[in-house]
Write a structure and sequence with these properties.
Layout lengths: L73 E2 L4 E2 L9 H5 L31 E5 L8 H14 L4 E5 L5 H5 L11 H5 L5 H4 L1 E2 L6 E4 L8 H4 L9 H12 L4 E5 L6 H9 L2 E7 L8 H14 L5 E10 L4 H13 L4 E7 L2 H5 L7 H4 L4 H15 L11
Parallel strand pairs: 3-7, 3-8, 4-6, 4-7, 8-9, 9-10
Antiparallel strand pairs: 1-2, 5-6
The structure holds adenosine-5'-triphosphate and magnesium ion.
Length: 389
């Protein structure tokens, strides 16, 4: 991916494009025939720091028919709309209209509105992050892929290990992960070397991915009967790091505390917990902390919780600010100063097989992840090195 914005969908001048009508409350297709509404809905302004007007909406990722724009027009003969392929705008996009930018200072060295990323300092030894939170949908994958891409764009060598059978990190980093694609499963169960199955991500030079396919779902059960079942990833990663100089490793975990996550906790030396700035944010974190304490006591004494990232921060709600404050009280030293805002661009990016850094480099979401990556890089190296383990 070259990081450029996709061009506009071409329309025939005589037949103006018609936007999709407002979704029905049930989110399904209308039950009966629908009168075609030929009005062109005004484009919502989007995020406060979105691209200027000259920046067109990118086309949907799915291939349109040979006529290209035909799917965006009302079909007068059937009196029904054909929905355009690709992602729809999320509800909260409309609510973002006219809002002031997230009250975060511009990141030092990463000026807004440019794609240039300041080069980042390399750690003294590889830093291996496990990105964990057994609560689902809190931004583990989004944080893993965007931080990894930001660090790689900063000139560092980064490996992302997709440890979730959903394969979301593989999707967001634009790498193949259809069933049968070799990756994490082969490493954990088959004993393959990581180097055999890593693939470069088109998102950034120096960014490698060990993909996960749905095959990995079986690993959770198969690992039960495997010798040294909680050390499989650690061993493979040690071998990889010995032969492949790497600055950062991010292990994207599934939303559970099973054997997959346990392998990650044993293989890593730092824990990064994304916490969504919503109600129940801290629910489950105490259980995660108990698991971490068990692991550090029995299996990996080098493991440290070093980083908490506040995600999906909605500056309009008092609740988000309260949650952020509560998290900062609990994890004063670990919580990054920067906050990841709730952003349509962030949520849209994976459906194009991209991180927000290449999808909308100037958006608030991209800038916040660049800034978070910079903060992580500047915090220095991990307390211990892989070689010492
Ligand atoms: N800052 C954000 N603004 C808006 N949407 C976001 C943001 N971060 C994540 N999302 C969206 O929220 C959803 C959940 O995010 P993500 O997949 O990263 O969470 P997760 O913790 O990895 O989920 P799971 O537990 O299923 O692995 C995704 O649809 C993602 O695109
Ligand atoms: Mg995930």
């Amino acid at each position: 991916m070259d990081g450029g914005q996709p061009g506009p969908v071409e329309g025939t001048p005589a037949q103006p494009l018609v936007e999709d009508p407002a979704p029905s409350p049930s989110h399904g297709e209308p039950a009966g025939p629908v009168e075609p509404d030929l009005r062109v809905d005004p484009e919502p302004p989007g995020e406060p720091d979105d691209q200027p007007q000259s920046q067109p909406e990118p086309p949907p990722p799915a291939q349109p028919g040979p006529s290209g724009s035909s799917v965006l027009r009302a079909d007068a003969s059937t009196k029904a709309f054909v929905r355009p392929p690709g992602p729809r705008r999320a509800k909260f996009d409309e609510a973002e209209e006219g809002l002031p930018p997230v009250a975060e200072p511009s990141p030092a060295g990463v000026p807004r509105g440019t794609r240039a990323v300041a080069s980042l300092p390399a750690p003294a030894a590889p830093r291996v992050f496990v990105v964990a939170n057994q609560k689902g949908g809190v931004g583990k994958t989004t944080t893993s892929v965007n931080l990894a891409a930001a660090l790689a764009l900063g000139g560092l060598s980064v490996l992302v290990i997709d440890l979730d059978p959903q394969g979301n990190a593989s999707t967001a980093l634009g790498v193949e992960h259809s069933p049968g694609t070799p990756g994490t499963y082969e490493v954990l169960i088959g004993g393959s070397a990581i180097a055999e199955h890593v693939v470069p991500s088109p998102e950034a030079p120096g960014l490698q991915v060990l993909p996960a396919s749905i095959d990995l779902a079986a690993a959770e059960i198969e690992l039960v009967s495997v010798v040294a079942r909680e050390n499989r990833l650690l061993r493979a990663l040690r071998t990889y790091l010995a032969g492949h100089p790497t600055d950062y490793v991010f292990i994207d975990c599934p939303p559970s505390l099973g054997l997959l996550t346990l392998n990650a906790l044993v293989a890593a030396n730092e824990i990064l917990i994304p916490i969504q700035c919503e109600y129940y944010a801290l629910e489950g974190v105490s259980q995660l902390m108990r698991t971490i304490n068990l692991v550090t006591g029995e299996l990996n004494q080098d493991l440290r919780l070093t980083t908490v990232v506040l995600t999906m921060f909605d500056a309009r709600t008092r609740l988000a600010a309260q949650v952020a404050q509560e998290v900062r009280t609990h994890f004063a030293a670990e919580t990054l100063p920067s906050v990841i805002p709730r952003s349509v661009r962030i949520s849209e990016a994976p459906s194009y097989g991209q991180t927000v850094l290449t999808y909308h480099p100037d958006s608030a979401g991209a800038v916040s992840y660049l800034k978070a990556a910079q903060e992580i890089a500047l915090r220095g190296a991990a307390p211990t090195t892989q070689e010492n383990r």
